[in-house]
Amino acid sequence: MTNSNFSNYKNGRRHQYVGGLARKSPVRLQIPSSGHWHVAIDMQGLRGSTRASVRVLPSPLPEIREAPLNSVPGLVRDVPPAVSDDAEAYDVFISHASEDKDSIVRSLAEALQGRGLAVWYDEFTLRIGDSLRRKIDAGLARSRVGLVVISPSFISKGWTNYELDGIVTRSVSGEQILLPIWHEITKQQVMDFSPSLADKVARSTAMHTVDEIAQEIFGLLRE
């Protein structure tokens, strides 16, 4: 009760309160406003005694909000990679394990392509007879963003590590943006695989939808 209501309560006058009949403890009461409040245990004329204590709980912490990609230093680059006149340039290169195609990668590639971005993704780019390593090397060299879908399947493969090494090398030299996407994996698993990779700005499919990730990447590249 507020000060005035508590005074009315003690003097048997009409009063207002927050609470009601409690049949078990503990009891949590949400105070509707800040100020000085009194807690009263009213036995309603029943015989007996009770012990009570009060603990003030802090208000809920504010919601965690991730910084947008375009606010993170090193994730914004004005100049696209230099390529020869007859070479095709890409906005995004997607490195992934084939086991993750159906669950995330294909839909992400389509969402990025649907927003008008040029996407290097094997199902879009490779043709029968192509040299896989040569195509990957060319795609890496001509892409602005190296999108790496980190998953348990990804970290268990040697071939994906080859792609990751290329992306990391280019990101260190400033030639390419490295953006990890965590998929069905914990931070501890990523840290065990690569501590430096675990420290990178990333997006997780546990917290973001495919469309949200695609839209954020689109906004980053089209600013």
UniProtKB/TrEMBL annotation:
Give an example GO biological process. signal transduction
The record's section on PROSITE patterns has:
TIR
In what residue span(s) does the TIR domain sit?
88-221
In terms of InterPro entries, this protein maps to: DUF1883, DUF1883-like_sf, TIR_dom, Toll_tir_struct_dom_sf
Name the SMART domains on file. Answer: TIR
A Pfam family cross-referenced in the UniProt record is TIR_2
Spell out the protein name for this chain: TIR domain-containing protein
